[in-house]
Amino acid sequence: MKNSLRWLYPFFGGIILFNMLRVVTDFTKHDVFWAGDLRLHLISICFTIFLCYFYDIVWRRQLSKIISINNKSVIKEYLIVTLQLSTINIVLVLGQYAGIFYMGSGWIDYMLINVCFIPFLLIYYTLIRNEMVNKNYQDKMLTLEKLKADKSEAELKFLKSQYHPHFLFNALNTIYFQIDEENQEAKHSIEKLSDLLRYQLYDIEKEVTLEQEINYLQSYIAFQQLRMSDRLVLNTYFDPQLREQKVHPLLFQPLIENAFKYVRGEEYRIKLEMKLEDNLIRFYVENTVSQNQNIENIEHKGIGINNLKRRLYLLYPNRYSLDIEQVENLFVSKLTIKTV
């Protein structure tokens, strides 16, 4: 409703502006109000209304750009608007020669039109400007409130995610000491899982070296192998050049997890490679799948891949690519990260 009423403002503005001009011209000459050819008056009032609509549209578009970049040069802004308004005289001259407008008093009529039109339209511009500045301010405040709410929610989720691994880590230590000394295989499995949790909880900062990350991935792979069939064929390669380069942790693990989770088929094979090419880390993992498995079902199950995409978007904007595809009986994931 409010937006539809906005389109009436130029209409009433044009009527007020034209009648204001008629008051100045007719009464100062002691003529009858709206003296002269009624047809010319109607053309003039339509032109004035059109002019208000024209400037309303132009100024709103112009202001949307100015406000979005926080332009502080208000004087320059108003000088540009005044120059825009001065082009009315060109339209008046052309209209007079075309017989559309009647300027009976010559330069005096031009002067009166400028004196009436320009200040009025500058006031109209100011009203539009204030409206858009207030709207922009309200939008920013709403965005800020939303960001605060999102931040609070994220902090709660982070604290909650920390609590569960801590609980599990402590529980594993308790179970470890309850296992019989003769059951070394179970103790070894718990030690591996504890090492993985320790890395996630304590050993990672904002960024880690690739050597640290690779050590974690190798431990993770070894732990996953404990629950896999002996017929699994696993081929891994980590480039020896990957050592001191920095990377955000736990970006590769979800893709490895998917490979172990969905490996199927007669070959029952997983291939994993991580290489360094210039300043690009290229991570490749493939696993065999059965013919009836579908990439969309795999890709959208759980939250691991979606979380990974979100983290990559935030941590490496315009510096990564992630491709996940199914080629016949192979499920292939390729992650490339630009380190610097």
TrEMBL record:
Keywords from the UniProt entry: Kinase, Membrane, Transferase, Transmembrane, Transmembrane helix
Residues of the Signal transduction histidine kinase internal region domain: 154-232
Source organism, top-level taxon: Bacteria
GO cellular component, one term: membrane
Residue ranges crossing the lipid bilayer per the database entry: 7-25, 40-58, 78-101, 107-127
InterPro entries registered for this protein in UniProt: Bact_2-comp_sensor_kinase (IPR050640), HATPase_C_sf (IPR036890), Sig_transdc_His_kin_internal (IPR010559)
GO molecular function: phosphorelay sensor kinase activity
Pfam family name, one: His_kinase
Keyword presence, Membrane: yes
UniProt protein name: Histidine kinase
Organism (species): Dysgonomonas macrotermitis
